[in-house]
Specification:
5-stranded antiparallel beta sheet, globular, mainly beta, 253 residues, 14 strands
Length: 253
């Protein structure tokens, strides 16, 4: 008995301050803007949740999708960030890529105006997706070494839901350009995701993807390039599979 109590006393400092509760069922998890990572290396599912009333991202983990352990903190908006921590974190999404884990998080700062009428139909404030990196799917996630204190998406755009798309050696950030700025929301992409490791790829391939844009309206969603889009954004060359290709001055991809 004495040995058991001694071992328990040794483990108490390790448990202090943690809010981990084993055996949580999925319907009992308070989740908003949730996303999931199925991590092949650890054979574990990770569920990331956030909300407007939180300045960070919480993570739960499970081996069977039925019983979950958590939550634990995976990310907090860093001190001195361009974003306002009090305005929360939206759309957290984590991806495993080239030995690292990347968190794509949409952040906001309503005190920073980026457009006002007549440039925009309403006053727009700063909102964009920023990329953070960690060695573990549980975090903590931090700004990448080559990252800047600004969104990874265009800073002059109101952005929602940035995600990672990889084709060959090139990583893209795909995101929604929000209707609150341009009325009809569009799906856009930036080649050469800022903050994502591009080892083995061309560092010059970092231009903004011109066209086509997938436009959303109340009546329909269309990925068809209109004449106005073609004239505004040009006609980039296509690859053999018909997908758009970003011309690179240094490597002629």
């Amino acid at each position: 008995m004495g040995v058991r109590y001694f071992i328990l006393l040794l483990t108490l400092p390790l448990l202090a301050g943690q809010t981990i509760s084993p055996g949580i069922r999925l319907p009992n998890i308070p989740a908003r803007d949730a996303s999931m990572l199925a991590d092949a290396d650890s054979r574990t599912y990770y569920l990331y949740v956030s909300g407007d009333d939180s300045d960070g991202v919480m993570v739960y983990k499970s081996k069977d999708l039925a019983n979950w352990v958590g939550p634990s903190s995976a990310f907090k908006v860093p001190d001195g960030s361009w974003a306002n921590p009090a305005q929360g974190v939206r759309d957290p999404r984590v991806y495993a890529y080239r030995g690292k884990y990347y968190l794509f998080a949409t952040l906001c700062n309503s005190d920073r105006i980026i457009a006002r009428p007549p440039e925009s139909w309403r006053v727009n404030t700063m909102q964009g997706t920023q990329i953070f990196v960690s060695d573990s799917p549980q975090g903590p996630f931090a700004v990448a070494a080559n990252g800047a204190n600004k969104p990874s998406t265009p800073a002059d755009s109101v952005v929602q839901g940035g995600t990672l798309f990889v084709e060959g050696d090139l990583a893209y950030t795909v995101y929604a350009h929000d209707w609150t700025q341009i009325v009809d929301a569009t799906i856009e992409a930036t080649a050469g995701s800022s903050g994502v490791s591009t080892a083995g790829s061309c560092s010059s391939c970092t231009s903004r993807l011109p066209a086509p844009r997938a436009s959303y309206s109340r009546s329909r969603m269309s990925a068809t390039r209109s004449a106005s889009n073609a004239s505004s954004y040009g006609e980039p060359p296509t690859s053999r599979n018909g997908r758009q290709k970003i011309p690179c001055a240094s490597c002629a991809h």
